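Render this sequence as a predicted structure.
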Amino acid sequence: MLLHGLRAEEVCRLNVEDYGNGELLIKEAKWDSKGEVPLTKLGIQDLDAYLDWRRAQEVELLPDSPLFVSCSNRSQGKRLTYWGIRHVMDDLAEKTGIDLHSHRGRHTFATNLIVKYELDPTLAMELTRHRDVRSFRRYTNRKNKIAAKRAFLKAAERLN
C-alpha cells in the first residue's frame, strides 16, 4: 500500500471497511488530506489475498477491524503501528542492501505519476493528496529535468 502513495500513518489507521471497489478510503490524514486511493490490479490482488489469509486466521473480520495487523510475537493480531512498518522496512533494507523507508514508496508513487505516466501535476497532487504545491514541486522538477534532456538530445539529433 505504501507504493500507492499512502503515508505509513494512513496505512496504520485503515480499517477493513475502508477497502472496497478497488480503492482505499483515507478518513484521517496529515493536513486533512482525506480522500480515495485507487489501487493497481496488483495492489487489489495482493490486498485481497492478504484479507483471505486473515479470514482463515480469524473468526470474523468486522468492518471496524484493523485492515493491517502485526505478526510480531509481542503484538500479534493487534493493529499494525508505525513502528511495525518501520521494523519491516528496516529488515527489508538490511536484507536487500537498499536504503528503504516507508515514505520512499510515497515518493516513488508520486515520481511515477509525473515522470513515467506523464500525469498532469494537478491530477497527481490529487492522487497523492498533497495540499501544498511547494512540497509537490520536487516531482515536477524531476519531470522538467527529463523533458529538458530529451529536448536537447532531440535537437542535437541524438534522439528520434
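Summary. The first strand starts at residue 19 and ends at 20. The chain has a mean pLDDT of 89.
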